[in-house]
């Protein structure tokens, strides 16, 4: 029997045993809108295999996911950034032991309207746009049009990553528009010829145009080899390590299985490779 078939069979048997001993278990997931599609795909798959299992997935932002875990309102906090030291401290004060699980990799594409002839940006040019030093596309080889800057809201892990990797934690321009999800960024950019935005890799489709950053396009390959400069891991946090043989453990470790990797790819993100993060 093929090794992958054996592994899949053993996984199915193990999950069947889980179902028998933890019938009716419920898992509450909250946090990142970037990680949300992965969490929903995992939830739908596991619930289809085990009708007694209930998994709810909310997308209130990475910061709110951390708060939910700290307050005991969820079992899994999905986050597109690492937990901050002050969040970890707040968790410990409440008796919560946040444990990070890297479940996939992501790029942070910078996106423009498909009609924009922009060939690419450097990180410095992207910073100058969002800081307000560059205000018209004509200075970057584009049309004579005022740039419309779209950003994720400040509670977003994607926003935090952008501020860290692009802005060096400097402020954004006063006229930046903030929206509440990666999907909203894409929607705003696809409907606004002069717009620029940023979102998770899984939110780039034919309705928007991702541009090279420092000469490198955001793809699964460039994220995995770290040649794309805006690459990042995606996280799920739990209170301690989930016990082996529980649905929670199955949910957290699905990313390591062939089926989990398939689901991650299907929603546009980058599965982990054997032996670690990259």
Task: Give keywords.
D-Maltodextrin-Binding Protein, domain 2; 278 residues; disordered N terminus; alpha/beta; 5-stranded mixed β-sheet; 10 strands
State the fourth-level CATH superfamily of the largest domain.
Periplasmic binding protein-like II
As residue ranges, the low-confidence spans are 1-23
Report strand %.
15-25%
Kindly state the percentage of residues in helix. 25-40%
Strand order of the main beta sheet, please?
2-1-3-10-4
Order of helices and strands: HEHEHEHEEHEHEHEEHEHH
Corresponding CATH architecture of the largest domain = 3-Layer(aba) Sandwich
Q: What's the β-strand tally?
A: 10
Structural class: alpha/beta
Q: Could you give a short account of the major beta sheet?
A: 5 strands, mixed
Question: What does this entry look like structurally?
Answer:
The protein is α/β, with parallel strands linked by helices and 278 residues long. It has 2 domains: 136 residues, D-Maltodextrin-Binding Protein, domain 2 (3-Layer(aba) Sandwich); 109 residues, Periplasmic binding protein-like II (D-Maltodextrin-Binding Protein, domain 2, 3-Layer(aba) Sandwich). 36% of the residues lie in helices and 19% in strands. It is built from 10 helices and 10 strands. The strands form 2 sheets. It has a 5-stranded mixed sheet. It has a 5-stranded mixed sheet with strand order 7-6-8-5-9, sandwiched between helices. Helix 6 links the parallel strand 6 and strand 7. Helix 3 packs parallel to helix 4. 42% of the residues are buried.
């Amino acid at each position: 029997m093929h090794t992958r078939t054996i592994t899949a069979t053993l996984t199915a048997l193990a999950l069947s045993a889980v179902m028998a001993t933890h019938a009716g278990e419920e898992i509450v997931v909250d946090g990142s809108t970037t990680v949300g599609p992965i969490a929903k795909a995992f939830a739908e798959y596991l619930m289809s295999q085990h009708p007694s299992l209930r998994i709810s997935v909310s997308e209130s932002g990475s910061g709110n996911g951390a708060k939910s875990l700290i307050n005991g309102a969820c079992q899994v906090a999905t986050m597109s950034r690492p937990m901050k030291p002050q969040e970890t401290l707040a968790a410990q004060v409440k008796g919560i032991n946040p444990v990070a699980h890297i479940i996939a990799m992501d790029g942070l594409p910078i996106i423009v309207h498909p009609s924009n002839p922009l060939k690419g940006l450097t990180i410095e040019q992207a910073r100058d746009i969002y800081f307000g030093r560059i205000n018209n596309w004509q200075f970057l080889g584009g049309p004579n049009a005022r740039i419309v800057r779209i950003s994720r809201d400040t509670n977003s892990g994607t926003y935090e990553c952008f501020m860290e990797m692009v802005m060096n934690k400097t402020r954004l321009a006063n006229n930046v528009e903030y929206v509440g999800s990666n999907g909203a960024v894409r929607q705003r950019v696809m409907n606004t010829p002069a717009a620029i935005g940023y979102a998770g890799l899984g939110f780039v489709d034919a309705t928007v145009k991702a541009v090279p950053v420092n000469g490198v396009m955001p793809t699964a390959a460039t994220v995995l080899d770290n040649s794309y400069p805006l690459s990042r891991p995606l996280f799920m946090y739990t209170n301690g390590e989930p016990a082996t043989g529980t649905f929670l453990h199955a949910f957290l470790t699905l990313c390591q299985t062939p089926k989990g990797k398939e689901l991650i790819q299907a929603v546009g993100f980058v599965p982990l490779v054997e032996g670690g993060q990259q």
